[in-house]
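ugh ok so i messed up the first submission bc i forgot one of the chains. this is the corrected input, ALL of the components this time, i swear. 430 residues overall. if the numbers dont match what u have on ur side tell me asap before i send this to the collaborators (the ones from the other lab, u know who)
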Amino acid sequence: MAAELHVELVAADRQVWSGEATLVVARTTSGDIGVMPGHQPLLGVLESGPVTIRTSDGETVVAAVHGGFISFADNKLSLLAEIAELADEIDVQRTERELERAKAEGDAHAERRADVRLRAASAAR
Amino acid sequence: MGAQLRVYKRRIRSVTATKKITKAMEMIAASRVVKAQRKVAASTPYAQELTRAVTAVGTGSNTKHPLTTEAENPTRAAVLLLTSDRGLAGAFNANAIKAAEQLTERLEREGRQVDTYIVGRRGVAHYNFRDRTITESWTGFTDEPSYADAKKVAAPLIEAIEKDTANGGVDELHIVYTEFVSMMTQTAVESQLLPVRLDEVAEQTQTKGEILPLYDFEPSAEEVLDALLPRYVESRIYNALLQSAASKHAATRRAMKSATDNAGELIETLTRLANQARQAEITQEISEIVGGASALADATAGSDY
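and heres the new structure output, hopefully the right one now
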């Protein structure tokens, strides 16, 4: 059996996902980073973007994370985000509408948020 | 029905109506406490992990950051006071305001100028009535604060602490809120948010003595701290807002429970008085009838002679 690491994905107001995983890929400000069991203790700043978690039973969990931190120590990985959503929770049609509206209104922040959500949703499929 | 009795009956009716209202408010508050408590619990993992991370950076690196280093001669401090929008919560707001005033007094004695930031209409009204200056205030969300509200409150505070003291910035940030200890106990507490006191933080998270691993910082310790501390402040304010909301509901519940109990007691007393009045009336009527009858009997008896 492959080594495992414990993952906690927490948003400001709730715990989004927690479980065992073999690989977590996230985007930090200095580029994508993949964390596997036994990684060196790490504390990094996350960019908004999709986070991919490969669970120990071979499934893939994708979440849209909007800013936050990644910290890893003692085989425990915490992903802290102000806002985080699992790909299954994302309503694609609604997000597409939001993206269009954000584009029309020139709201770069909302546009980016919608874009991250859509990317996470498509990555999960 | 006699006048006395009618007055009692009317008062009983009015007190019964009040009792129904306070009972309803008590039950609403009770259900809200549970909800608020659940929100406090849901926000705990984030706050805990964040505090851990702050401790890790603070102790694991030699970074000097304006948010972690104490100013040598602090001249200005910001005090954030959390009150509620509505009253009917016993001494809840009074206690929080009193704690804030004590803190302000202490800081001023130590030679600091104090900027006051207030959340909640009650606190704002208290300060406005006394013509004290409020630097900034927020109202309208104290019953059910969201993370966005906490961000809104935190933004100007973080800005103020990052500014130079000469340009109107502050050296310290204190927060006064009501800690939710249990359903029966809520205490007004004050704590220093910034500069972060790492040993205090470590105590809170029970990480004191635990050896923290040597972290790799991505991209660098300074940048991680830059990004981490505003989030830390926001999450602390969010947690304080939630606790304050839970405390307020618990205080309301208790105040309304005693109001209901008092109304019940009052009804009982009034019912006794009403019964007494009714009985007095009946007694009077009987004695009048008896008196009248015997007078009549005396009169007829007298006519026979």
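quick check: The interface with chain A takes residues 39, 42-43, 45-46, 49-50, 52-53, 56-57, 146-147, 151, 212-219, 223-224, 227-228, 231, 234-235, 238 of chain B (CB under 8 Å). that seems consistent at least. The first strand of chain B starts at residue 76 and ends at 82.
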